[in-house]
Amino acid sequence: MEFVQLNDNIHTIGNTAFWKCENLKGFGLDHLPEALTEVGTAAFYQSGSALIASKLPPQLTNIPAYAFSQCPNANIRTFGSWDYPITKMSSQILEKSGNNTVTDITIYCLNGVIEPNAFISYNTTNPLVSLHIVSPSGNEDFSQWGLNIDLTTTTITQEKLGG
Questions:
Q1: Nearest CA to 5 among 54, 41, 50?
Q2: Burial, 49: exposed, middle or buried (Cβ in 10 Å; 0-12, 13-18, 19+)?
Q3: Residues paired with 53 in a beta bridge
Q4: CB atoms within 10 A of CB 9
Q5: pLDDT (tens digit per residue) in 70-91
Q6: Which residues are within 8 A (CB) of 60 and not within 5 positions of it... i.e. 6 or more apart?
Q7: Geometric angle at alpha carbon 77, from 73 and 81, rounded to 5°
Q8: What was the pLDDT predicted at 134?
Q9: What CA–CA distance (Å, rounded) separates 103 from 100?
Q10: Quick count: other Cβ atoms within 10 Å of Cβ 78?
């Protein structure tokens, strides 16, 4: 299978839906479906170069383990939104993903919902240039998230969600 036609009206993509579909080249979209509210564990794990994304759909707020792992074109820079902050982010969601072009990440999240190593091995060649975290406390401890940052060169900003 090389192509699967997805449309913006899809709400759920189940566990391992595209697991190891390494020959997959496209979904008919250059982004994840806008209506997507749920994605299963390892839904896109090793799905070839088909998944091209720089942000997650706004209502996708619970991201299970390995959801986008080993997807070279999953260059996700924005997680959550003001209206729909991340409510849970499991470990290794983007392991060995990204093609080393991600230099900045913005995360809108509730306090304490991002598990250790959520970003382990994501876009690992170069450290991030900037990390922006928006949370209710405005002071999230990101030290265990597995982000590739250099505390001497990465600009890190935090602000309170909704204010």
A1: 50
A2: middle
A3: 74
A4: 9
A5: 888 888 889 999 999 999 999 9
A6: 32, 36, 37, 38, 39, 84
A7: 130
A8: 95
A9: 8
A10: 16
Question: CA-to-CA distance for 147 and 38, rounded, in angstroms?
Answer: 24
Which residue type sits at 128? L
| Extents of the domains making up the chain | 1-102+111-126
How many of the other CB atoms lie within 10 Å of CB of 132? 15
In sequence order, what DSSP letters do the residues of 63-120 get, joined into one string?
Answer: E-TTTTTT-TTEEEEEE--SSS-BSEE-TTTTTT-S-S---EEEEEB-TT-BPTTTTT
Answer whether 40's CB lies under 8 Å from 68's CB. no
Extract the tokens encoding 147: 């982000």
Give pLDDT tens digits for 104-151: 999 999 999 999 999 988 877 778 899 999 999 999 999 999 988 888
Degrees to nearest 5, angle at CA 60 with 55 and 99: 30
Q: Which two tokens stand for residue 12?
A: 């759920």
Are the beta carbons of 24 and 2 closer than 8 angstroms?
yes
Q: pTM here?
A: 0.88
For residues 133 and 57, what is the distance between their CA atoms, to the nearest angstrom?
Answer: 18
